[in-house]
Specification:
- The strands form two sheets. Strands 2, 4, 5, 6, 9, 10 and 11 form a seven-stranded mixed beta sheet that branches. A four-stranded antiparallel beta sheet has the order 1-3-8-7, with no helix packed on it.
- The radius of gyration is 13 Å and the shape is globular.
- The chain contains no helices and eleven strands.
- β5 and β6 (55-58) form a beta hairpin.
- The chain has strands at 2-7, 10-12, 18-26, 31-37, 44-50, 55-58, 66-71, 76-81, 90-97, 109-110, 114-118.
Amino acid sequence: QVQLVESGGGLVEPGGSLRLSCTASGRGYSSLGWFRQAPGKEREGVSCFSLSDDTTYEDDHAKGRFIISRETAKNTVHLQMTSLKPEAPAVYFCAASDGCGRDWWRYGSWGQGTQVTVSA
């Protein structure tokens, strides 16, 4: 059983930055990923951190703007988001899996999500 707790969401102006954090507890996972979902839209991948080899992955919309990192001592993965665009509000979820991938159904454990709104 894996427990995930996200934090760091909020309201930010276009072009601004936010840092999301995901703290994990439990066993049986080797990757922590971030997904987002806007109302009426499918859940889409954002980024993933492979804890076994420190490899990171970013989806196309996140490349060059988002950086994922780990804080090992706190079992935490951070998602630093910069140059945020005025998109529809979305809930960002942290998820745990045995390997990184874009498909959300591969992830067996999910956090409760944190809301991110980019608006002037």
